[in-house]
Every structure is written in structure tokens, then in C-alpha cells.
Amino acid sequence: MGARDTVARNLQCAGAATLRYGLALNLLWIGRLKFEAYETENIRPLIVSSPPFARLAAMLGERQLARLIGVSEIVIGGLIAARPYAPRASALGSLAGAGMFATTLTFLATTPEAWQQKRKEPKPSIVGQFLLKDIVLLGACLATAAEALRETAPGGR
């Protein structure tokens, strides 16, 4: 194996670790914030504009729904981070994260505040820009799921 291959492999390993643990840290931190009153206020426009989340908020209350979302984010982040010890659980966490980010991307369609009004072509607002990052996080979840699933295959890597 040449020096270029070694460098490429080292970069790939560093990138995969950064992706996995950056994703996990983001989920743990953002999940923790869901227990703060200001974060309940921050997500209100997203929740009330989404038919399924609006129904959940009506049943549970906005504060409880925010906390439920926060607990989900914390659990998913913890599972993703557990890959060295529990690759199957980590793959499950990554797939759950992919589902979560696919769900939050629907807010682009249901939240009027996600788009700047009075524009000829669609332009995301600050809220829309915030949501667009979930495309990258969705990709990160899919990549970390694949990596963890490879670890669960007979013989590992």
C-alpha cells in the first residue's frame, strides 16, 4: 500500500469518526435544549404548522412534546455514539436519526415561515436555512448506519 493510500485511509477514518461523533454530539446537545422554555418557543412555528405535530402538541402540550422530541434526540445520539460497543444498536440509532431528519425536512413544506414571501423563486428564510442543514444530517445518519451495519456483518470489516 502506497503513502497516498495510507493518507486516504487515515482521512477516511478521521472523517467517519468526526461525522459519527459530531452527529451524536449535535443530537445530544440539541436534545438537551428541548428542556428549555426558549427552545419550546423556537420550535413552535414548526410544530403548529405540521398537521401530525400540531395534533401531538394538542394532546400532550407543546412543552411535553418538546421534551419528548428532546428525549428522542438524546437516545438517538447516544445510540449513534455507541458504535464501538454496540454496532447494531448504533445502526438502529442512525436509521432512527435518518427518519427523524426526513421528518423535519417536511417542515420545509408545512411551515410558511420557512420561505421568504414576495419572491418570484423560492428563497429560504432564516427558518428555511435552519431546516436545510437537515439534508446533511440525514446523509450523515445514512453513512453512519452503513458503517455500523458493516461492522455487524460476519467477520466485521
TrEMBL record:
Listed GO CC annotations: plasma membrane
TM helices/strands, residue ranges: 65-85, 91-109
GO biological process terms on file: response to hypochlorite
Domain of life per record: Bacteria
Keyword annotations from UniProtKB, A to Z: Membrane, Transmembrane, Transmembrane helix
Protein name, entry field: Membrane protein
Native source species: Acrocarpospora phusangensis
